[in-house]
Design brief:
- The complex is a heterodimer.
- By secondary structure, chain A is an alpha/beta fold.
- Chain A has two domains: about 1-90 and about 185-190 and about 200-270, P-loop containing nucleotide triphosphate hydrolases (Rossmann fold, 3-Layer(aba) Sandwich); about 105-180, no CATH class.
- Chain A has helices at about 55-60, 85-90, 110, 135-150, 165-180, 195-210, 225-230, 250-260, and strands at about 15-25, 30-40, 45-50, 70-75, 80, 95, 185-190, 215-220, 230-235, 240-245.
- Chain A starts with 16 loop residues before the first strand and ends in a 10-residue tail after the last helix.
- Chain B is mostly helical.
- Among the domains of chain B are: about 65-185 and about 270-360, no CATH class; about 185-245.
- Chain B contains 16 helices and four strands.
- Chain B has a two-stranded antiparallel ribbon with strand order 1-4. In chain B, strands 2-3 form a two-stranded antiparallel sheet.
- In chain B, helix 3 (about 60-85) runs parallel beside helix 10 (about 250-270).
- Residues about 1-5 and about 400-405 of chain B have low confidence and may be disordered.
- Classes of the chains: A alpha/beta, B mainly alpha.
- The interface of A and B includes residues 115, 132 and 139 of A.
- The complex binds adenosine-5'-triphosphate and magnesium ion.
- Adenosine-5'-triphosphate binds near residues 29, 52 and 57 of chain A.
- Adenosine-5'-triphosphate binds next to strand 2 and helix 1 of chain A.
Amino acid sequence: MTSENKVVGQAAPPAHLAVRGIHKRFGGVHALRGVDFEVARGEVMALVGDNGAGKSTLMKVLAGAHLADDGAFFLDGKPAEVTSPNDASELGIQIVYQDLALCENLDVSANLSLGSEPVKPGWSFLPRLLRPLDDLEMEVKAKKAIDRLEVRTLQSVRAKVGGLSGGQRQAIAIARAVGAESTVVMLDEPTAALGVAQTRQVLEVVKRLRETNHAVVYISHNMRDIFEVSDRITVLRHGTNVATYTTSETNPDEIVVAMTRGLDTENGNAA
Amino acid sequence: MQPDAKLTFLDRFSALRETQFGTFVPVLLALAAIWGYFGLVLPFIDLISGQADSFRAIFLSPRNIYNLFMQSAVIATLAVGITIVLLLGDIDLSAAATAGVCAALLGVLVLSGVPGWPACIIVIFVGIIMGAAQGLLVAYVGIPSFVVTLAGLLGYQGLMQKILPTGNLNVGDPFVRGIARVLIPDLWGIVLGLAVVGLFAYANLRKQARRKALGLELDSALALWGQVIAFTVIVVAVVLTLNAYRSLPLLLVLLVAITALLGWITTSTPYGRSLFAVGGNAESARRVGMKVKRIRVSAFAIVGLMAAIGGIFGASRYGSVSYTAFAGGSLLLEAIGAAVIGGTSLFGGRGSVWNAILGALVIGSLGNGLDLTGASAADKLMVSGAILLLAVAIDALSRPSNGSGR
Ligand SMILES: Nc1ncnc2c1ncn2[C@@H]1O[C@H](COP(=O)(O)OP(=O)(O)OP(=O)(O)O)[C@@H](O)[C@H]1O
Ligand SMILES: [Mg+2]
């Protein structure tokens, strides 16, 4: 089985984040078997594959939530070390999970600064955990983040997340990832539970991320969405690479075949 | 924003409860209903049926209000602590037993000649360790808090009996007794009350001014002033009523000060925010780098701290330590009931320590009022049960995930 990265069509843009030969085992399950993956800035890289192909696992490895058993990380060509979520976020890698992991009991601004709440200056005699929160600063930051993504349906950053729609929540989860000085934003099935209008809203947000020169990884099962937002498509199957395609030079049928049957080695190449 | 005409009563109710002051509304209504019933309706019925002299407006007399506050103080202290673990979605069944152990230890220490204040400090440390030990089991061994603290309840009950083989001990130490006996002079009580009111108003107005300066959305003037005025009325009424009988007792001032400190920590610090985050979505808190396990342990340590303080308050007020007053009696259920009646969610992530104080007043008022009317212990238990059930039903109905999926 080869794990070499096949790029079909024109030369790929220089990778911002790249991994080579990633292996991940869960007990007896060999979920990732030497996967290569890369994404450049200002591009949306779709990651597709059948259920259980290892998409979410790969993403969690990239975000430091799972420790790879083997493999190498490169950031702008330089070897990097990602062993914890903190490592990943220091490198600017942020993930929006399939379950959004928002706190429904807190408001939008609190969710956006969760874990890195601003505190008022001048209380340095107290441990940081007990200094007074600067909740107005939090709201200002939240408003900026929401405005940048142009989420127009959101009325107030003081609304509790529990009362928001799925699309609004998705946008907030994305805003949280973007707000943290990130360069890589990874989205796991962001539109899986959304209706047409809300899917549209999220796709607009994803396109905006590309405009702001983020490297975006986009996992989805929906071919239409993928062909609308992505620049390249990486196909995984049974924990290995099938191929990487340039979106403008392929079509949904070809991707579906690659996802379900892989590339027939006898027939040579997918192009 | 205009309220949508199609909103159901329940929608409005949950919306109301989402606002900052709105969380107090249900428990304040409950309190008003109970006080109205015992203080106004019952005396009126007695009056028209010609038995006026047996039961006049005793309930709302300054003397009874004073007693009511003092009776509710120990329940309130424990309820404030229990609220902290409820915020995480955990529960502590051992709080009253911890308070009992601490009170018993305090009694034994002062009896053996340790001066009052070092004895109190030792006891507070013991309480913190007792709470933190359970927290370690919950957070690091992964046993559900219900089970750990149930075991703690049994174990600490036994421990209290070991410390107090006779089941009873008088506490005569002047420092310990002083906590409940010392009264703030009338004038100083008023000055203190006005200072607190001034501080509250100043903080609110300053925040509004900063909102304006930063171009953030403003609180409505009605909400802002309503809040300040309601707070002022409550504080002034309480101080004047207590002054009308005796004076502001030191114990209540301490209780309010501790609650204010915990209230500030839970709502206005990153630590407090992490309590709410863990209670709302522990996985989310973990992913943003919060130390969920340490937060759990610290929350149980705070319950231990409050239980120890409750033990000290109890010993001070009764002048004795007895098994039935703490570990073996109804204190635990009353304290948990107070926290829940106050509006703190059993599902975690929602609540406040101030609500626990109001909840304790509800429980205390019920007991006090039923006592005055000569109701039996059986009646008291059944009415308390009904109120608790009502409070939990309100909690379940006003959960955000329940029916408001717009
Ligand atoms: N925490 C885990 N423990 C054990 N096995 C796991 C774990 N996470 C994933 N796996 C296994 O790894 C394999 C890949 O799973 P993964 O979630 O990455 O698939 P996926 O491509 O995201 O699928 P889907 O499209 O259904 O989300 C599956 O066989 C799954 O059972
Ligand atoms: Mg997945």
